[in-house]
Amino acid sequence: MNPMEEANIWFAEAHDEGVALTFKITNHLFSKKSAHQRIDIFETLSYGKMLVLDGRVQLTEKDEFIYHEMLVHIPMLHHPAPRRVLIIGGGDGGAAKEAVKHDVESVTVVEIDEDVVRAAKEYLPFTASAYDDPRVHLHIGDGVQFIEQSDEKYDVVLVDSTDPIGPAEMLFAGEFYGKLKRVLNPGAVVAIQAGSPWYSGDVTAKSYRLLRESFRDVRIYLAPIPTYPAGMWSFIMASDAEMGEPRPITFSTRYITDDVMRGAFALPRFLLEALEG
Q: Is the CA virtual torsion 238, 159, 248, 258 positive or negative?
C-alpha cells in the first residue's frame, strides 16, 4: 500500500484569507519547477488525478469535462462552420479534446510550458489523448508572440489560460484582445475563461469591458465547477459579427445540453451590477 494512502495528507487552495478548498491526497505523482511555474499532479481520494500550477487547481479527473465543454462548445456552436481553431494555453489537452468533436480541419494549441504538456501526456491521458488526433498541432511558445507573428487565420480562438498572474498575465490585457483580431477570419468567435465572479468579479468585469472595446458582440456565461473557487466560473465570448442562436449539439457530451447552453447566459444580479460598475 502507498504510505500516503494511510497518511492524513491534504492539499489546500486558499480562495481568500478565510476560505480554502481542500483535497485528501493519496499520491503525489509529479512535481517540477519549470521555467515558468511549479507543476504538481496529485492523486486525490475524491476527484481522481488533479493538475495544480503554482498552487492553484487547474483541473481534476472528475470534473474537468464541465470546464472544457463550456469553454469550447458554446463559442464553437455560435459559429456557423468552424474549421480552424486556435487554443492559447490548454497544454493539458482538455480544450483540444472537445474541439475535435466538431468537424474541424485543424486545432492549434499554443502552450508556453512544454513541461505541462509532457506531464499531461504521462499522467493525464483523459485530456492529453487529444494530441493523438492528427488534426491537433502543438506549438510551444508565448501566446502573445504567436498572434503577433502568425500569418494564419482562425474561425474560433479559445484562451484557456491560468489565472491572470505569472505567465498568463498578458492574456488578460486589453492590448492582447486587440491583437487577436489580426488572426481572425470574418465572423470569428473568441472565448476566454474569465475567473470566479464571486472571488474575482473585478477580473471578470474588466475582461468584459476590454473585450467590448475590441468586439461588436460580447456575452458572458457561467458554469458550476465544483473544484474552482466558489464553484462558479465565468466565460466570455466575443465576435465582430452579431452572434445568433447556437447550432444544436450533435455529438457526445457529459455536461452541456442545448438547454444548458441557453441557460448559461442568465446572470445573477451581483454580476450584472459589477459589469455596470
A: negative
pLDDT digits (tens, 9 = 90+) for 19-55: 999 999 999 999 999 999 999 999 999 999 999 999 9
CA 95, 81, 155: angle at the middle one, nearest 5?
Answer: 60
Q: Which domains does the chain have, with CATH numbers?
A: 3-60 (2.30.140.10), 64-276 (3.40.50.150)
Q: Are 140 and 112 in contact (CB under 8 A)?
A: yes
pLDDT digits (tens, 9 = 90+) for 82-115: 999 999 999 999 999 999 999 999 999 999 999 9
Please, which residues bridge with residue 209 across strands?
A: none
The three three-digit cell numbers of residue 166, written as one number? 505569472
Tell me, letter by letter, the H, E, C secondary structure of 119-183: HHHHHCHHHHHHHHCCCEEEEECCHHHHHHHCCCCEEEEEEECCCCCHHHHHHHCHHHHHHHHHH
The residues, any chain, with a CB within 8 Å of residue 272's CB and separated by 6 or more, are none
pTM over 0.85: yes
- Is residue 113 part of the annotated active site? The answer reads no
Please tell me the distance from the alpha carbon of residue 239 to that of residue 98, in angstroms, as a whole number. 21
**Catalytic annotation, pick one of 160, 202, 217, 259:** 160
Q: Is 100 helix (H, G, I), strand (E, B) or coil?
A: coil
